[in-house]
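The protein record now logged underneath.
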Amino acid sequence: MKFIATTAALPAGTTTWANSEDVLAHAQGIQQWQHIALHFPKWTDGRAYSQAVLLRMRLRYAGELIATGEVLADMLPLLRRCGFTAVQMRADQRVEAAQRALGYFDDHYQTSAA
């Protein structure tokens, strides 16, 4: 998982989508973007998880998926399972805690988008 500092700009050419965006409407040109940022307006709103799974599994998007917004360290294992490859966490979150959270679950019974 790549960590992008809260104060840093997203990579050049990143397209950012709200969690209400219909990702399937972009199916035709999805591979043109190297980076797609999916926004979490609240940590309790999980629609961006579903967007990531659709992008990875149904549309076979192979570029970088970035989680932005109210991203907490506790969310990282599920973000990785859904296919996110980078995060820009909320300003009060620590990278050390996020890295520790990523080590909690190594095996899963279900398949994943990762």
